[in-house]
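Here is my example:
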Amino acid sequence: MLRILPRLAPILALGLAPLLQSCAVNPVTGQRQFVLFTESQEIEMGRQADQDISASLGVYDDPELAAWMDDMGQRMAADSERPDLPWTFRILDDPTINAFALPGGYIYLTRGILTHLNSDAELAGIVGHEIGHVTARHGITRVSRAQLAQVGLGLGMILAPELRPFGEAAGAGLQLLFLSNSRDAEREADDLGLRYMSTQDYDPRAVARVFEMLARASGAEDGDRIPGFLSTHPDPMDRRDRILARTTGEEPEYRGTVDDREGYLQRLDGMIFGTNPREGYFRDNVFYHPDMAFRLDYPRGWRTANTRDEVQGVSGEQDAVVLLRLVAEASPSEARRRFLAGEGVETVTTSEQSVNNLPAASAEFRVRGENATFRGHVVFVRWQDRTFRVLGYSTEASWSARQSAISQAVRSFRPVTDRAILDVQPRTIELVRTQNDMTLEGFQQRHPSTVDLATVGVINGLRSGDVIPGGTLMKRVVGDPPPGD
């Protein structure tokens, strides 16, 4: 998961002052709408959250593709009910199939969803849908309702002050921003998206293909991982049928002519597909980072996750964590000093002992919070002109059982020299034009991918047995599977 968004805390802690704004007018419907924030506060909330999301997931490095998508989004947003927002459209360097919007006009699509789309119109449908969430103020309405619900519980509880010194597990910003939309909100965003894309002459029928892809993708290569888009956008096949009813027939409600499969696919040539092992990967319980040439051993059986700015491990009982990240200090001892100076942190012991022959400074500590006391072990290691912080902690009640595993993990940081680890590369999209008519199975035989047939079908919008006409531009996936798959 993403790290929590601490910059949202001051905004979410505005208390009841914004209640004066609670009777706002919905820009789309003209109806009265419950909103606790002014438009300027909404924009600031999105701006601050954007910094965290961009840092946590990373922005995909393809300026030409980013500029093209931004142009598409800006044109649709300019014809919306809120053209004056500081609209921002980003491609996130994330393999999951996802798209989402933040208050204030911040729209995100992952490279994962881009590799699964097949035309300009399909992309326009996703972008338009997310614009609709912003113009109808769905996100800021959810945040307003969630904040009001917290008032009776004591807003300070949201911020988990007992963990604030660590900056990892505090804050409700992410949870509030990603509260599920209601079915009515999803239908409204669907309709708005169809309207926005139609004003730019994109074929709205393409959106039906998107929802079919989303439904199929949940059972494709990563069958145990439902696409993120579906986690907050339910019933894709029902929505596909509803969209077809509004975009087909003798008198469709929405219409357009631009689809452009070939132009869209050309922009994907060479895009990373799936996880990028250059940014780190797990093999069993060991985390390897080829670009920075190190490894870290997590306790066996723990659940692990690798995000752009932090590697996380959580015990099965969820009573202990180990977290790895870079810090700004050039000296391990200075980084430790700053950490131990955090609010509520009590030093138990300190050590200057090196870690696997690398300069290091470590400490055991205690944090007494409002609701619980935590014990932990932190190590700061210097490697390749960077300072890494490896932090492990648990509740004090669990410390005696977790101390040994945590201490071994935080002191396991070491360099890697194995070229098999250092030279690993990501899989990518490669375009192939068929020479003759062939089935999907024949395409996989003639132009094999390093993903299974079902995935090849999903990313090309085809099913087993479908005949592909000669001269059709197709996607295949090339490169070795990521280690550990």
